[in-house]
């Protein structure tokens, strides 16, 4: 039995309408686990590194992991893997909710979409039956209405993945939404779906749980051990349930690493007004959870001035619409987060691009007459709300430019230095000057700036699994590599990264072996993570990445933090990067042939 894999891929060509069922190569699946790892390998082998990301030749892979839909903790994750139109490199956007589990219950390990439809189309998947349909009546709908309308046809038990108006417009900050407010949010994956004229994928499944686990008894025991570890850790047992990821606002502000006004400052005296504590006190209705998740970090909140209960903001949009835009009005931030979900916009890239535009306006590069009556002023609640909607609609020249991200916006005004991005993807909510390891991760993450590729905030700030000094460069290359490799494993398995606040390689290995029938050691599983990270890097090399792309914005390298607990600090990437390359077995940003052979990536040797 192919434990935890259904051994089925669907390849859907939207140009011809052909739907082919392909058998999953189990040896390949075991070599890359699934999810992010297997998806990248499939995309690499299909030659997509050299194609135009918005052309019919690009593929869009919706892929589960072996643990997706299992009874293991927080196992609702799936990945969207494609070539990014934002960065021109690999895109591996992760989402939760229930859609990924439903796809697995329907019996599919992955759906590969290629080509381009001749009119707006949606895909329905009902167990083995896959069909293409005219989607014209759904075009222009916001995420919530789109979800409701499909469920009126397919039933409440269906799960809906869709793009909003931003994706239809092929905005490079467009996300793919599922279950109304869960997002595969980064790298412009929604633009790729929009370029194919694919509005949605609706999934229904007869199964309610997986029936292909290799050793159910072993999985039950591994689950017990994993749940015990999660229940004994304050962060996963109660902290995230009580405050969500927004518990970080005051913590990060307290160490002077909460970027403010487009990273011109690194702390704000009004941060508590947009914190998880204030969100819980004023607006929280209840905690929410993705499939089979004991952590329950999700927020269901009341939107002030309406009777709506909506999905609330996580730490990233709270920061990005808050201090990064100089805003202290929490309800305005909540509303902006809602509009990101409704339009299908990246809730990190959208507000950080608004922050970059505010700095361009502050310095006189964006003129008032370009703002169509809504000046891009620091602290303006009207500006963050209105410009989010304008970016979603992308009708005015400035809004259209902003919807393609801060790198292109700032370059268009002749000042690329004001884009706080890496590889053209906006940096998340931790100032790399005051937290050295996370800066190294930003610079080297294959998808562009991303905190969830090597979350060294755990040891550098939270003390998990142990406390290390955030201000030093010592040992950070090793820490970043370990966290990046373990994250690649978790993303490939189909579990949530937040479980790693408590769980380690041993727990994940036990779950994986029980579900799939493999006999990996923890060291071997981490080597798979290393392999995944390296195949991503080889994809990027084929896509045209240069060594100089592994860097940070000039501001973080040369402008010391002005005030607060991190005053005087800059990122010492110059020290850490060579050490990191040595730890990885890379020379000038890319794996040596020796490293590739060691990892079993012989097909990449010499390329």
Q: What percent strand? A: 5-15%
Query: What proportion of the residues is helical, as a percent range?
Result: 25-40%
Widest sheet: strand order? Answer: 2-1-6-3-4-5
Q: Care to count the β-strands?
A: 19
Low-pLDDT runs of 5+ residues are none
Main sheet, how many strands, which sense, barrel? 6 strands, mixed
Radius of gyration from the alpha-carbon trace, in angstroms: 22 Å
Structural class by helix and strand composition: alpha+beta
Distance between the termini: 36 Å
The rough form would be described as globular
Summarize the structure.
This protein has 607 residues and is an alpha+beta fold. The protein is 39% helix and 14% strand.
Write the layout of secondary structure elements.
Blueprint: E1 8-13, E2 19-23, H1 26-32, H2 35-45, E3 60-64, E4 78-83, E5 90-95, H3 99-105, E6 110-114, E7 121-126, E8 129-134, H4 143-154, E9 159-162, H5 165-168, E10 176-178, E11 182-184, H6 189-195, E12 198-204, H7 216-231, H8 234-243, H9 248-254, H10 276-282, E13 284-288, E14 298-302, E15 309-311, H11 315-321, H12 330-343, H13 349-362, H14 381-393, H15 397-402, H16 406-412, E16 421-422, E17 425-426, H17 436-444, H18 457-462, H19 476-493, H20 505-516, H21 522-543, H22 554-558, H23 573-584, E18 586-587, E19 590-591, H24 593-598
Parallel strand pairs: 1-6, 7-12
Antiparallel strand pairs: 1-2, 3-4, 3-6, 4-5, 7-8, 9-10, 9-12, 10-11, 13-14, 14-15, 16-17, 18-19
């Amino acid at each position: 039995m192919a434990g935890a894999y259904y051994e089925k891929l669907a390849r859907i060509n939207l140009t011809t309408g052909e739907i082919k069922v392909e058998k999953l190569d189990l040896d390949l699946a075991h070599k890359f686990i699934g999810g992010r790892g297997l998806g990248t390998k499939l995309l690499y082998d299909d030659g997509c590194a050299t194609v135009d990301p918005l052309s019919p030749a690009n593929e869009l892979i919706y892929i589960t992991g072996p643990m997706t839909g299992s009874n293991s903790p927080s196992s609702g994750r799936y990945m969207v893997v494609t070539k990014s139109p934002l960065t021109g490199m690999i895109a591996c956007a992760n989402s939760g909710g229930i859609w990924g589990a439903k796809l697995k219950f329907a019996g599919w390990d992955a759906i590969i979409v290629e080509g381009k439809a001749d009119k707006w189309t949606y895909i329905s998947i009902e167990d083995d039956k896959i069909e293409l349909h005219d989607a014209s009546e759904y075009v222009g709908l916001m995420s919530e209405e789109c979800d409701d309308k499909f469920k009126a046809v397919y039933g409440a038990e269906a799960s809906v993945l869709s793009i909003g108006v931003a994706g239809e417009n092929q905005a490079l900050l467009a996300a793919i939404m599922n279950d109304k407010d869960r997002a595969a949010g980064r790298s412009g994956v929604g633009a790729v779906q929009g370029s194919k004229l694919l509005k949605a994928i609706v999934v229904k499944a007869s199964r309610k749980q997986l029936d292909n686990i290799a050793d159910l008894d072993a999985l039950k025991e591994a689950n017990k051990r994993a749940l015990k570890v999660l229940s004994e850790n304050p962060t996963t047992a109660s902290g995230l349930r009580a405050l969500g990821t927004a518990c970080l606002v005051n913590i990060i502000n307290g160490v002077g690493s909460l970027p403010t006004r487009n990273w011109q400052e690194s702390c704000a005296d009004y941060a508590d007004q947009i914190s998880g504590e204030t969100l819980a006190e004023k607006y929280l209705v209840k905690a929410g959870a993705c499939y089979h998740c004991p952590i329950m970090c999700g927020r269901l909140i009341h939107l002030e001035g309406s009777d709506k209960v909506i999905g609330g903001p996580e730490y990233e949009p709270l920061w990005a619409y808050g201090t990064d835009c100089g805003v202290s009005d929490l309800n305005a931030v909540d509303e902006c987060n809602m509009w990101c979900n409704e339009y299908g916009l990246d809730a990190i890239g959208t507000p950080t691009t608004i922050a970059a535009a505010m700095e361009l306006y502050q310095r006189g590069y964006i003129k008032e007459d370009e703002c169509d009556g809504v000046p891009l002023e620091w602290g303006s609640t009207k500006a963050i709300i209105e410009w989010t909607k304008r970016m979603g609609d992308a009708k005015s020249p400035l809004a259209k430019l902003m919807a393609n991200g801060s790198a292109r916006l700032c370059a268009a005004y002749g000042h690329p230095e004001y884009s706080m991005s890496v590889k053209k993807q906006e940096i998340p909510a931790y100032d790399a000057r005051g937290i050295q390891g996370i800066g190294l991760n930003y610079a080297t993450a294959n998808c562009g700036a991303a905190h969830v590729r090597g979350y060294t905030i755990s040891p550098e700030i939270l003390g998990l699994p142990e406390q290390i000094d955030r201000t030093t460069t010592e040992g950070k290359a090793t820490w970043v590599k370990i966290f990046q490799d373990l994250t690649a494993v978790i993303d490939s398995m189909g579990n949530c990264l937040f479980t790693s606040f408590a769980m380690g390689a041993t727990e994940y290995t036990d779950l994986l072996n029980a579900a799939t029938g493999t006999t990996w050691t923890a060291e071997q599983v981490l080597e798979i993570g290393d392999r995944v990270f390296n195949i991503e890097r080889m994809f990027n090399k084929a896509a045209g990445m240069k060594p100089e792309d592994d860097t940070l914005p000039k501001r973080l390298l040369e402008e010391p933090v002005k005030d607060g607990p991190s005053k005087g600090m800059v990122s010492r990437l110059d020290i850490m990067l060579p050490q990191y390359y040595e730890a990885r077995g890379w020379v000038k940003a890319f794996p040596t042939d020796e490293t590739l052979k060691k990892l079993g990536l012989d097909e990449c040797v010499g390329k």
